[in-house]
C-alpha cells in the first residue's frame, strides 16, 4: 500500500507540518483525521512562512486537502483561515479542499464552556487552548452535535440547536452565565452556511475513489500520541484519539488501506500546557533549548516546556502507533552542547520502569534515568546528507534508533522544506 499516515510521537509540536509538506510532494491528497483548530503547523516555503491550524499541509502545494469526519470544525475559524491563506497566494477552492459532511461543528457555546472550565479556581486546569474542541467532542459523543450537513436544512438545524442548548444552557446556569438564545445561534449558522457548505463532501467516498485510481494518500494527524485521550498522560490530554489507528476511523477508510506509519519525533522533548514531563528542564539548559528551537505554539504562541530526549516515551509511542519509521526533527537545535542526555528509564519507589505508568499520581512522581552522550560543536543546520553531519551527531541518531527500537527514515536539520536527509521513502514502504 502506497499510503502513509503521519502522527506526532511525543506531546505534539514535533515539526509535523514541515514533514507532511515535504511528503505531500509525493502524495496526491492529504487527509486530516482528528483534532480541531487547536493544532498548528508552520511551513517555510521559499522564505515564506505559512501558519496553518485547520487546513491540511498539502494545501500549500496545491494538493487535494481533506478534513475527515474525525475533525471538529469551527466554521468561522475555517473561513478565516481560508482568507488568510488566499492572501498568501494559495488558491483555496471547494475543488481543492473537502470537509466531511458529517464533521461536528465547534460553536460559540463550546468556546464559552471551555473557557469557563479553565477559569475555575476549584477545578483541574488542563491547559487547553480554550477554543471549544473538548466540548465539541463531548457533544459529538453525546449525540447532540450540530454537524456540517445540518446547515443545509434550516428546520432540522433549529431542532438540533434546541437539543444542544437544552444541555448547554443548564451548564451555563451552573457557571453563572446567561442562557444562549437559540434563534441567535441558528441565525449566525444560516448566515455562514452558504460560505462553508460548498466544501462539504462524502470524504470517505472521495478518498476511496482516489485510491481506486491508484492515487497516494497522506493521512495527517494533529497533536501527539502522548496526548491521545486513551493512551496519553490522562487527564492532561487532548479530546481525540491521536494515534495512527484513528486515521481509518477519522476518514472512513479501512484500516488496511492506511499504509506506512511514520512518527514525527523531535531530537529533544517539549510539552505545552499542564501535565507530567519527566525530562523537563527548568534551568538555563531548558531555556537554551527553547530559545534555539523557537519553542512557541503556532496557534497560541504559548511557550513550550523543554527537556532532554525521552526514549521511554517515544518507544511506547512506537508500539502504540505501530510505527514503521520515524522522522527525527530539529537535530540542529542540539548544536553546540558539550554533552547531551537521553532518558532510558523511569525510577519510581526504587524500581526502574520501561514505560509511562498509567496512574496520574505515579506519572507525577517518576524520575528520569539518564544516559549521557557527547555533544558536538559543529553545525548540522541545513545538512542534506550523512556526510554533512559531525560524527557525534550520527552517533546520537543511531543511539536514538536503538533505544526507541525503530529506524529513522528522515532527518530534518532546519525549518526549510528541502533540508531533509532521506534514509527510507515512506511511500515506498
Automatic annotation (TrEMBL):
Entry binding sites for Mg(2+): 13, 40
Residues reported to bind substrate: 298-304
HAMAP family: Adenylosucc_synth
Active site per UniProt: 13, 41, 140
Pfam family of the protein (one): Adenylsucc_synt
Reactions catalysed: IMP + L-aspartate + GTP = N(6)-(1,2-dicarboxyethyl)-AMP + GDP + phosphate + 2 H(+)
GO process terms (BP): 'de novo' AMP biosynthetic process; IMP metabolic process
Family as reported in the entry's similarity comment: Belongs to the adenylosuccinate synthetase family.
Assembly with partners or alone: Homodimer.
Biological pathway: Purine metabolism; AMP biosynthesis via de novo pathway; AMP from IMP: step 1/2
Residues given in the record as IMP binding sites: 13-16, 38-41, 129, 143, 223, 238, 302
Cofactor mode of binding and number, as noted: Binds 1 Mg(2+) ion per subunit.
UniProt-recorded name of the protein: Adenylosuccinate synthetase
EC number: 6.3.4.4
Gene3D superfamilies: Adenylosuccinate Synthetase, subunit A, domain 1 (3.40.440.10), Adenylosuccinate Synthetase, subunit A, domain 2 (1.10.300.10), Adenylosuccinate Synthetase, subunit A, domain 3 (3.90.170.10)
Protein's organism: Marinicauda algicola
